[in-house]
Amino acid sequence: xxxxxxxxxxxxxxxxxxxxxxxxxxxxxxxxxxxxxxxxxxxxxxxxxxxxxxxxxxxxxxxxxxxxxxxxxxxxxxxxxxxxxxxxxxxxxxxxxxxxxxxxxxxxxxxxxxxxxxxxxxxxxxxxxxxxxxxxxxxxxxxxxxxxxxxxxxxxxxxxxx
Length: 162
Known about the structure:
By secondary structure, the protein is α+β, with helices and mostly antiparallel strands. The chain has one domain: CBS-domain (Roll), CATH 3.10.580.10. 31% of the residues lie in helices and 23% in strands. It has 5 helices and 7 strands, in the order ααββαβββαββα. The strands form 3 sheets. The protein has a 3-stranded mixed beta sheet with strand order 5-6-7. The chain has a two-stranded antiparallel sheet with strand order 1-2. The chain has a two-stranded antiparallel sheet with strand order 3-4. A hairpin with a 4-residue loop joins strand 3 and strand 4. The longest helix is centred in the middle third of the chain and has 14 residues. It is globular and about 55 Å long.
């Protein structure tokens, strides 16, 4: 049964998104409110132009902290990076104050890994394993977003078919 499933059968259709000109603070707030670690970035024509993750935002903060004169007075903090499945250390300090005004377009990844709605679920799993990612967007050739498949969706499929 599970082998006949397609991406469109298991994808989450209600996807929280952001826009390229939204601020990183707004994107991070959306992530926290919706308990997600990444957001597809949708332009004014409703096409997916990228993806931004909490890790992207934290990496920007880390880069700014490393270039800041205040680095010596900052404290270290830890966060769990779901993409790498490990804890990361980073400096926490004053440079985060600059992030709220930074637009999403400055840190988003434009190289979006996606599958089409009719892609067999086994191919989706192979892609996610091969790329080392825990979520994949479901889009058509025109880059219109149909949904998203997260690693947890595979757990649901397994539990339903066990």
